[in-house]
Amino acid sequence: MLHPAAMTAGTDASIRADLSPASRARVAAPMGNATIVRRLVRGYLKGQWGTLGLAVACMIVTAGMTAALSYLLDPAIKLIFLDKRADMLMLIPFAVFGVIVVRALTTFVQQALVDTVGERAVAAVQRDLFDSLVHGDLAALNAVHSGQFVSNFLYDATLMRDAIVRGIAGLTLEFLSLIALAGVMVYQDWRLALISIFVLPGVAWVTQKIGSSLRRAASSGMAETAELSTALSEALDGKRIVKAYGLEDHVASRANARIDGRLKYLVRVARTRAGAVPASDLFAGVVIAGTIFYAGYQAMHGEIGINHFASFLAAMLLALQPVRNLTQLWATASSGLSAADRIFAIIDTKPRIVDRPGAHVLAASGGAVRFRNVGFSYRADAGAPAIENVSLEAQAGQKIALVGPSGAGKSTLFNLLLRFYDAETGGIEIDGQDIGHVTLKSLRENIALVTQEPILFDETVAENIALGRRAASQAEIEDAAKAAAAHEFISQLPEGYATRVGEGGLRLSGGQRQRIAIARAMLRNAPILLLDEATSSLDSESERQVQEALARLMAGRTTIVIAHRLSTVLDADRIYVLDRGRVVESGTHSELMKHSGLYARLYQHNLNDEPA
Ligand code: ATP
Q1: Which of 314, 318, 289 is nearest to 75 (CA)?
Q2: Given this model, what pLDDT does residue 295 score?
């Protein structure tokens, strides 16, 4: 009895594999800050210049209004308090209120606009990241830590947004406000203004110290965040094993260690950040005290008017906020830029498996497959190659089987035929055409992959089947389901074909998932079928249905099956026995049994293992 394999189209399998945890090495060297900024501006602010222009215009007005507020204290004191002019008693408060209203309005508009620009940039980055995820090579994707990807996708993108938003606001609003307020200060008393300038080197020093300390703590915190995301996704993906093996405490303590590690860094970030403003305030305090002393001394000698001093002091106090914000700007920009660097490293990982120049569309007829002296290693530093000098052939419409011990290289042959990886030596042909010289799209369109575990997406049953061929009509979907013996149970689902299957198809039984997956392969209607037999068995009724569905699926196609239960390959046209990456025997079942080699031994073992 052939044990059914679950199925999916090739791309599904690769998406699944992408999310499997592994570790990822950073590919590109870190970029310089100037390069990152240029790229952010060109790539992610493009098309938003209108919005930005309006925001900057509002910022100019806001900065002007802030300065106007401090300036207005001068006439207010002089004309109202000293000259006691009744007309000004009406006019000046009105002017102050007017200035505050305009400033409130422009502050609101500029904030909303800059935040929108930031969020749009994040969305664009996330689109690029996802694009690079799904289009990446399987080899590169297998190396992506799923948690790291999640943290790049969610947290790094927001760090980047903060840097953009604060960067724009810092460079324009804070800077312009400082200039405008400095203008008022110089206008009111240039000697006092000169004293204030002494605060700047101190503030710059604190800013730089705090910025680099924040950057270190933030990047360690990011690494811990990535680990935590991985622990989380592993606990969710492996929930059944976690429960069945009673691993709750183990999984929780691993996650706790990550949470503690992350906490340590985040607390450090919080403390450093909290220290930034008070530290720069200390310098400001010295200057304020010095100013009051100097101004008071001058006033006692009648050289400075109270109106000028009040206006000057107001401008100086108002200038504290932009200075504080600029203090934090470097810290935010630093962590944002290193986040952008991590993001760009992923986006820049270009797939190596691509259409070669001059690649043509595969003109498949019967789907004959031939491997000629194929050799391949997953890693250059691996001892023995995964596949060595493998030659095999499946003529159009034949069924051939790959058998062999675990790790013999059976799945690797599938990976090579689908060009998830490129063979290093030898060649693979379909209907006489080298697969290296045809387009990837046409190659994969001609192959239906049926994996051990059915992979369903949390969409409707109909959509899951239609993944085999996106353009399929409802009638075609139902025909495929009928051929896969799935129509009946689908019709009994609460919403029939429109029923959502739940995450990973969890709302369906194992056999039902497999039949949906078979229907998907049916719809794909590819001449070549790659079947990786499921190792787990279903109950006999379910298995019979899946078996029938598979028989219909195989009819008229070239099928290569990875057989885990040798009883399922008795009818194969040819069986290839692999061991340590090499074909050690081949022939029909009876030929191989006569030979009394590895196959005969495996078969004997298998018979003993299988229930009668
Ligand atoms: P099984 O029956 O257990 O699925 P298999 O015959 O399909 O085994 P392959 O998965 O093809 O075996 O593996 C062949 C060899 O390649 C093994 O030694 C395995 O460790 C190695 N290998 C497989 N996948 C990778 C990978 N992504 N990176 C590195 N090595 C790999």
Answers
A1: 314
A2: 84
Say how many CA atoms lie within 13 Å of 236 toward its Cβ. 12
Listing DSSP states for 112-139 in one string gives HHHHHHHHHHHHHHHHHHHHHHHHS-HH
User: Which residues make Cβ contacts (< 8 Å) with residue 377, sequence separation at least 6?
Assistant: 385, 386, 424
Tens-digit pLDDT profile for residues 78-124:
999 888 888 888 899 999 999 999 999 999 999 999 999 999 999 99
- Higher per-residue confidence, 221 vs 3: 221
Q: Does 536 score more than 50 pLDDT?
A: yes
CA of residue 409 to ligand 1 center, whole Å: 6
Q: What are phi and psi of 84, to 5 degrees?
A: 50, 50
The DSSP result for 146-186, as a single string, is HHHHHHIIIIIHHHHHHHHHHHHIIIIIIHHHHHHHHHHHH
Instruction: Kindly give, in sequence order, each residue whose CB lies less than 8 Å from that of residue 402, ignoring residues fewer than 6 positions away.
Output: 410, 413, 560, 561, 562, 563, 575, 576, 578
Q: Are 199 and 286 in contact (CB under 8 A)?
A: yes
Please write the tens of the pLDDT for every residue from 47-58.
Answer: 899 999 999 999
Taking the alpha carbons at both ends of the chain, their separation in whole angstroms is 11
For residues 379 and 54, give the distance between their C-alpha atoms in angstroms, rounded to a whole number: 53
Ligand 1 centroid to residue 580 C-alpha, Å: 10
Report d(CA 558, CA 365) in Å as an integer: 11
DSSP letter for 438, please: B
Q: What is the distance between the alpha carbons of residues 319 and 321, in angstroms, rounded to a whole number?
A: 5
How many other CB atoms are found less than 10 A from the CB of residue 522?
27
Nearest CA to ligand 1 atom 1: 406
CA-nearest residue for atom 10, ligand 1, is 411
Would the CA dihedral through 60, 63, 67, 68 be positive or negative? positive
pTM of the predicted structure, to 2 decimals: 0.74
Token output for 6: 């679950």
**Residues at CB less than 6 angstroms from ligand 1:** 142, 378-379, 386, 404, 406-412
Q: Tell me how far the alpha carbon of residue 22 lies from the centroid of ligand 1, in angstroms.
A: 15
Q: Whose CA is nearest to atom 9 of ligand 1?
A: 409
* Mutation pick for ligand 1 pocket among 378, 417, 562 (CB with most ligand atoms within 8 Å): 378
